[in-house]
Design brief:
Largest sheet: 3 strands, mixed
Radius of gyration: 19 Å
Helix content: 55-70%
Order of helices and strands: EEEHHHHHHEEHHH
Number of helices: 9
Strand order of the largest sheet: 1-4-5
Structural class: mainly alpha
Shape: globular
Number of strands: 5
Length: 265
C-alpha cells in the first residue's frame, strides 16, 4: 500500500492570489498542445502554418474549460449545482467532464474551421494527436487533488487517499494518465505520421480513448451520488464512452470508403 503524499492543492500563494495545481496542469496541457501543434504544422505538406497554432489552441482551451465544466454539471451533478449555482464557477475545486469538454472542443473546432475555411474533420484530424498530452496533465491534476480515485484494492500499488481513508484504492487517475495520456499519444501520433483520409485520425483517437476509458471505469469508483447507471455495473463514464467508440469506428469505416481529400491533417 502507498500513502498519497497529500499535496497542497494550492501551488503558489501571493497575498490573496492562489494558483492551484489543477489550473497549472491545464496550463501545461495547453502549452504542450501548442508545442506539438507547431511541430505537426512544420511538416512538409501539412497544410498548416505554425503561427496558426496559438489561435487554434485558444479556441480549444475555451472549448475545454466551458464544455468540461458544463458537462460535469449536466452529466454528473446537476441537482447539486442547481441548488448551488455559484459553485459552477469554482473549477479550481475540480469537477471537469472529458466528454463535456469534447463537445466544447467540437464546437470550438467547428468555429475555427469556419474562420479558416477548413472542414470540421480536417481540424479534428490535426488536433487529435495533440489531445492526449492535455489528458495526461489533467489526470495528474486529478491525482494531486485526490479526486476520481478507484475502487478498493489489496494490490501493492493501491493508494490510501486522505479524502477516502477507509481503504487503499486503485490510482485510477494514474491508470488514465498512462492509457489516455501516454499510450494513446504514442498510438495516435504514430497513426497520424502517414497521410490518412479525412476523418481517420480523429476516428482513431475517438475509438482509442473510448476503449481505454471504458476499461478503466471497471476499477474507477463511480460518483457517489450516481453509482452504476445501468445493469448494476455500468458507470456514467462508460455510457458516455460508448458513443465515442461507435463514432470513431464509423469515421474509420466511412473514411476508408471515401477518396482522399486535398486538405491535410
Amino acid at each position: 500500500m502507498i500513502t498519497h503524499p497529500g499535496f497542497d492543492p494550492v501551488a503558489i500563494s501571493i497575498g490573496p492570489l492562489s494558483v492551484h495545481w489543477y489550473g497549472l496542469m491545464y496550463l501545461a496541457g495547453f502549452i504542450a498542445g501548442v508545442m506539438l501543434g507547431r511541430l505537426r504544422a512544420s511538416r512538409p505538406g501539412s497544410g498548416w502554418k505554425p503561427e496558426e497554432i496559438t489561435d487554434l489552441v485558444v479556441y480549444i482551451a475555451l472549448g475545454v474549460i466551458l464544455g468540461g465544466r458544463l458537462g460535469y454539471v449536466l452529466f454528473y451533478n446537476l441537482s447539486h449545482y442547481f441548488a448551488n449555482p455559484a459553485g459552477i464557477l469554482a473549477i479550481w475545486d475540480g469537477g471537469m467532464s472529458f466528454h463535456g469538454g469534447l463537445l466544447g472542443v467540437i464546437v470550438a473546432m467547428w468555429l475555427y474551421g469556419r474562420r479558416t475555411a477548413r472542414s470540421l474533420l480536417a481540424v479534428s484530424d490535426f488536433m487529435a494527436p495533440l489531445v492526449p498530452a492535455g489528458l495526461l496533465f489533467g489526470r495528474i491534476g486529478n491525482f494531486i487533488n485526490q479526486e476520481l480515485w478507484g475502487k478498493p484494492t489489496d494490490l501493492p500499488w493501491g493508494v490510501l487517499f486522505q479524502t477516502m481513508p477507509d481503504h487503499a484504492r486503485h490510482p485510477s487517475q494514474l491508470y488514465e494518465a498512462g492509457l489516455e495520456g501516454v499510450l494513446l499519444f504514442i498510438l495516435v501520433w504514430w497513426y497520424a505520421a502517414r497521410k490518412r483520409l479525412e476523418g481517420q485520425v480523429a476516428g482513431f483517437f475517438l475509438l482509442g480513448y473510448g476503449v481505454f476509458r471504458f476499461l478503466v471505469e471497471f476499477v474507477r469508483e463511480p460518483d457517489a451520488h450516481l453509482g452504476p447507471v445501468a445493469l448494476e455495473w455500468i458507470s456514467m463514464g462508460q455510457v458516455l464512452s460508448l458513443p465515442m467508440v461507435l463514432l470513431g469506428g464509423w469515421l474509420l469505416l466511412r473514411s476508408g470508403r471515401n477518396p482522399p481529400k486535398k486538405s491535410s491533417s
